[in-house]
Amino acid sequence: MHKLEVKSDISNISEVEKLIDVVCDDLKLNEDNYGNILIAVTEAVTNAIVHGNQNNNIKTVIITVDSTVKEVVFTVIDEGGGFDFNTLPDPLAPENLEKPNGRGIFLMKSLSDKVEFFDEGRKVCITFVINE
Asked: Which structural domains are found in the chain, ordered by start?
């Protein structure tokens, strides 16, 4: 298991990228898996920093990684107020296509095998199946 705790400053995404590099190297994942993990996890951390913790660098984001032979799970936890993950607007709806944001969770779900929210949206678990 790996664990990283970062202050809510978007510049700390580089630390998350380093963690992903280490995990993917350790698990000997291919470039496709690496790319999907990189985009989905950095999107989750960006959401935690910007939307969850409101860019308040007193608050932290915790990233943990657990793996088995068949999957790797990245968990991202923020200290924000949470959100209703069941009522997100559809980013593919015509009225949302030209909006500059609102696609993060859609990307996370598209690039991973499972996305689950807990603790009123303050915790997200992103699962990637490996060694298929």
From this structure: 2-129 (3.30.565.10)
